[in-house]
UniProtKB/TrEMBL annotation:
Cross-referenced InterPro entries: AKR (IPR020471), Aldo/ket_reductase_CS (IPR018170), NAD(P)_OxRdtase_dom_sf (IPR036812), NADP_OxRdtase_dom (IPR023210)
Positions of transmembrane segments: none
Domain NADP-dependent oxidoreductase: 22-292
Top-level taxonomic group: Eukaryota
SUPFAM superfamilies listed in its UniProt record: NAD(P)-linked oxidoreductase
Name of the molecule in the record: NADP-dependent oxidoreductase domain-containing protein
Coiled coil location: none
Length: 299
């Protein structure tokens, strides 16, 4: 890790570039009201966030782009100081669709290039007008191999449309197969990581291949708390609140600090000003060993 103890602490990617360890998630296609994400991005840039996690699927890249453009115009930030990620959706895995889809994303984001473009999932959907095509009650998959898709990703890199390429939601076997069949190695694997799903083995595997893990849902999808099938997020655990009191930190700050200590980047999402500020204020304390022995963190 480089530049420790600042908001812009970064991790080195295998192509020599750097990714900030903290970023702002922008997902909530159906939950954020129009304009909310634009406001969140502006607050985040003012608060020091430089890493933004976007996706074509989230349906709000135009809003993200408007916010970025305004902040650049105001002189608050320069394009080269930002790290912008987007992702290729499952309907567009055919090799010849990858470059056009990235161009569409760039046009929405009002940018000339991305910092990181990811294959969102290792499987493809049937090409269809529906974002999530269904056949007889089941997701309708196509048999396009992610190795074919990766060739399109490499083309994006060669054309200068993105500085780095990577994957999301890939397991170790899928990464291994990709590494054996690629010209350019992925720099990153973005997967769910939170104390309920600490991904210890996958993080170790990725580190052994010089691939950075970016952890999504770091706060454990607190909006689903109490629903069947969703474990209670750690930020609602009273023991974590107790630990936080020792450091004068909130449960979310304790959890994010713990995750960053695993050597990964995290992308908590919020459209609430106080939480956006809270989630980046995590670099001025180190959890003691006794605090890391809370069962939650060991699962
Ligand atoms: N690659 C993938 O397949 C994939 C999948 C899922 C997510 N992602 C990415 O990862 C990002 C984060 O994941 P996520 O949005 O699902 O989950 P998350 O970041 O773990 O949790 C977001 C939820 O926590 C709330 N929250 C934020 N900060 C908080 C705090 N300090 N205290 C209490 N609650 C807080 C947010 O509410 P408010 O917004 O109302 O403040 C929101 O309801 C996404 O936005 C997206 O960019 C990627």
């Amino acid at each position: 890790m480089t530049n420790t103890n600042t908001k812009n602490t970064t991790l080195k990617l295998n192509n020599g570039r750097e990714i900030p360890v903290i970023g702002l998630g922008t997902y909530k296609l159906f939950k954020s009201r129009p304009g909310e994400v634009e406001t969140a991005i502006k607050i985040a840039i003012d608060a020091g966030y430089r890493h933004f996690d976007c996706a074509w699927f989230y349906g709000n890249e135009a809003e993200v782009g408007t916010a970025i453009r305004k902040k650049i115009a105001e002189g608050k930030v320069k394009r080269e100081e930002l790290f912008i990620t987007s992702k290729l959706w499952n309907n567009f895995h055919r090799k010849d669709r990858v470059v056009p889809m990235l161009k569409e994303t760039l046009s929405s984001l009002k940018l000339d290039y991305l910092d990181l473009y990811l294959i969102h999932w290792p499987f493809a959907f049937k090409e269809s007008a529906s974002l999530w095509p269904i056949d007889e009650g089941e997701s309708a998959f196509s048999d396009i191999d992610y190795l074919e898709t990766w060739q399109g990703m490499e083309e994006c890199l060669n054309l200068g449309l993105t500085k780095s390429i990577g994957v999301s939601n890939f397991n170790a076997e899928q990464i291994d197969r990709l590494l054996k069949n690629c010209k350019v190695k992925p720099v990153c694997n973005q997967v769910e990581v939170n104390p309920n799903l600490n991904q210890k083995k996958l993080i170790e595997f990725c580190r052994s291949k010089d691939i950075v893990v970016v952890g999504y849902c770091p706060l454990g999808r607190s909006e689903y708390a109490g629903l069947p099938g969703f474990p209670d997020p750690t930020i609602l655990d009273p023991k974590v609140a107790e630990i936080g009191k020792k450091y004068n930190k909130t449960p979310a700050q304790v959890v994010l600090n713990y995750l960053v200590s695993l050597g990964i980047s995290v992308i908590p999402k919020s459209v609430t000003k106080s939480r956006i500020l809270e989630n980046i204020n995590i670099f001025d304390f180190t959890l003691a060993a006794e605090d890391l022995s809370v069962p939650r963190f060991l699962q």
